[in-house]
Write a structure and sequence with these properties.
- By secondary structure, this protein is of the alpha/beta class.
- It folds into 2 domains: 217 residues, UDP-n-acetylglucosamine1-carboxyvinyl-transferase, Chain; 211 residues, Alpha-beta prism (UDP-n-acetylglucosamine1-carboxyvinyl-transferase, Chain).
- Helices cover 28% and strands 24% of the residues.
- The strands form 6 sheets. A 4-stranded mixed sheet has the order 2-15-17-16. Strands 4-5-3-14 form a 4-stranded mixed sheet, with helices on one face. A 4-stranded mixed sheet has the order 6-7-9-8.
- Helix 2 packs parallel to helix 3 and helix 7 runs parallel beside helix 11.
- The longest helix has 13 residues.
- The chain is globular.
- The chain starts with 12 loop residues before the first strand and ends with a helix.
């Protein structure tokens, strides 16, 4: 059995060998977006909530640690958590909240701690401190919450001076689930009803979680409303939460199979929220053979299985309203584009420039290193595909987990081993990635 790389689990570098067709069944870790949200709500609840399928990645554990600092009691056994909540009131943390690399943690918690009376300092690693935060501080300021920037205006570390927010009617400048969620969570503490209007549909995990928790949240088309508690205690019962597999993690394996003639892949137990699976529609438009099977017995977030049969792909245009629901999958869609016949254009995706890395620049540079024709643009890329990937390159993730995993997928299509460097970041979202890549290798035809 050919291993992917010697000691790759402990290293910051992978050597990825070419992969032939495979026939495999796998599961992916719990959904990162949902794990963050249920940890926050369970941490605020009354009594003991139980969460199964929780993602054990570094990002989600940062959220768990933050809730501990604000009074929640958390016991964890792998992906199963028991959280004794604070009874609807947050305690002011004694130390700053270190949120590592997690943009979701800092932006959602900024809204949640708006109801925590006192100062809450939030910071993170170098990457997190380089990402813009005015997109959350501006609506929070409009709600009467004072946000201070300690070192550089508009960037973490930042201070939230909590209290009783004012209600707000907020129109998102761009479709952003993180900004929408920040405002909704702050609105839970406000006086009166707060509304958020989306310019285009984006992830709705926060709304679904609030509704399941019995909180006053209503969705009417592009508008979401929450009724505030006027700074009083939130009434959240202890609940059983089941986190489905992360579609964004499954996306890597879907692309690993979709452009590989003869490959057959089944991913079970994966989340199938309609606002998360734009990648399926895009790949089908590119010619991919993908079947989605819903689990009719699922409650809460939809889930089920995805079956992929590999074949030839062709280029397409990825743009407009499908971008918000495929934003995390754009790097691996760029890999699919590199493997497709013809040209693929990705546009309206300027948000990629302020993720864990400038994903437009970093993906463009890595694809060029792989011998793929790429034109980088302000809001996307023009990619000239080819089914012939020479391999033998060295791909640098620049500390971005989705870049690292995307380039590992591309490397499996090469004709010679390739290296991916700066891969330790993958632990933020997918600590079992290498094992699942090995599973495909073990199931080669």
């Amino acid at each position: 059995m050919s291993k992917i790389a010697d000691n790759c689990l402990a290293s910051n570098r992978w050597t990825v060998n070419p992969l032939s067709s495979f026939d495999a069944v796998l599961r992916v870790p719990g959904d990162k977006s949902i794990s963050h949200r249920v940890a926050m709500l369970a941490g605020l609840g009354s009594g003991v909530s139980r969460i199964s399928g929780f993602l054990e990645g570094d990002d989600c554990l940062c959220t768990v640690n933050a809730m501990r600092q604000m009074g929640a009691d958390v016991e964890r056994q792998g992906c199963c958590l028991q959280i004794k909540g604070t009874g609807g009131v947050l305690r002011q943390p004694q130390m700053q909240l270190d949120l590592g690399n997690s943009g979701t943690s800092i932006r959602l918690l900024a809204g949640l701690v708006a109801g925590c009376k006192g100062r809450v300092v939030m910071t993170g690693d170098d990457s997190l401190r380089s990402r813009p935060m005015r997109r959350i501080s501006d609506p929070l300021a409009a709600m009467g919450i004072k946000v201070e920037y300690i070192e550089r205006e508009g960037y973490a570390p930042l201070v939230i001076n909590g209290g009783v927010p004012q209600s707000i009617d907020y129109q998102l400048p761009v479709a952003s689930a993180q900004v929408k969620s920040c405002v909704l969570l702050a609105g839970l503490w406000a006086e009166g009803v707060s509304t958020v209007e989306e310019p285009a549909p984006c992830r709705d995990h926060t709304e679904m979680a609030l509704i399941k928790a019995g909180l006053p949240c209503e969705v009417a088309g592009s508008v979401v409303r929450v009724s505030g508690s006027s700074g009083n205690r939130l009434d959240i019962p202890a609940l059983e939460w089941i986190v489905p597999g992360d579609f964004s993690s499954a996306a890597f394996w879907i692309v690993a199979a979709a452009a590989r003639p003869g490959a057959v892949l089944r991913v079970d137990g994966v989340g199938l929220n309609p606002r998360r699976i734009a990648l399926v529609d895009i790949l089908r438009r590119m010619g991919a053979d993908i079947v989605v099977i819903m689990d009719e017995n699922a409650s809460g977030e939809p889930l089920g299985s995805i079956i992929v049969r590999g074949g030839a792909l062709h280029g397409t245009v990825i743009s407009g309203n499908e971008i918000p629901n495929a934003i995390d999958e754009i790097p691996v869609l760029a890999v699919a584009a590199a493997l497709a016949e013809g040209v693929t254009e990705i546009r309206d995706a300027a948000e990629l420039r302020v993720k864990e890395s400038d994903r437009i620049t970093v993906m463009s540079d890595n694809l060029k290193q792989a011998g793929v024709g790429v034109e980088s643009r302000a809001d996307g890329m023009l990619i000239e595909g080819s089914s012939k990937i020479p391999g033998g390159g060295v791909f640098d993730s620049h500390g971005d987990h989705r870049i690292a995993m995307s380039m590992a997928v591309l490397a499996t299509y090469g004709r010679a081993p390739s290296s991916v460097i700066n891969t330790a970041c993958v632990n933020t979202s997918y600590p079992g990635f290498v094992e699942n890549l090995q599973l495909l290798r073990d199931n080669q035809n």
